[in-house]
Specification:
By secondary structure, the chain is α+β, with helices and mostly antiparallel strands. The protein has 6 helices and 4 strands. The strands form 2 sheets. It has a two-stranded parallel ribbon with strand order 1-2. A two-stranded antiparallel ribbon has the order 3-4. The chain is globular, with a radius of gyration of 18 Å. The chain starts with 13 loop residues before the first helix and ends with a helix.
């Protein structure tokens, strides 16, 4: 496992601490959900910074399912992430770059994973095209959707 029984939380990595907080939220009602004026539970916001760090690909897929569940329950999930598999399962992507550090911080492209994959300026888009099994020359959302549709019917 990743965490030893009795391990103090101060020794956890950022990703481990975030995953522990998600597990706590999902497994126990330690904090009562806020209730709106209409008596219904209010949605929550989860802000995660690279939660896939240190996870195997099997565990990445489990995390993706958990995050999808949180979103399906009406919560907002915002993730800062470089893992292309998680990015591919996102509803909306904001790709900053074009590089890191002083070379980044500018909006390269935003939209669905398919729209990001259609961007010829985006390194993330290039990685998404490769993950989707698309040719590098497919550079519009329409072309990418057609390739995805064609692959699904093949």
């Amino acid at each position: 496992g990743y965490i030893r029984l009795g391990q103090t939380t101060s020794t956890l990595s950022g990703g481990e601490a975030q995953r522990l907080k998600i597990a706590r939220f999902l497994l126990a009602d330690l904090e009562p959900a806020p209730i709106g004026q209409n008596g219904k539970t209010l949605p929550r916001m989860f802000l995660l910074d690279e939660p896939t760090t240190g996870l195997s690909s099997v565990d990445n897929r489990k995390l993706i399912k958990v995050l999808q569940r949180l979103a399906a329950e009406g919560n907002t999930v915002v993730v800062i992430e470089h893992n292309v598999e998680l990015i591919a399962h996102s509803d909306y992507v904001i790709d900053l770059g074009p590089g890191g550090g002083d070379q980044g911080g500018k909006l390269v492209v935003s939209g669905s994973p398919v729209q990001v994959a259609a961007s010829g300026r985006s390194i993330t888009g290039s990685e998404l095209r490769r993950l989707f099994g698309l040719r590098a020359a497919a550079t519009t959302s329409r072309e990418i959707k057609a390739e995805i549709s064609g692959a699904a019917h093949a």
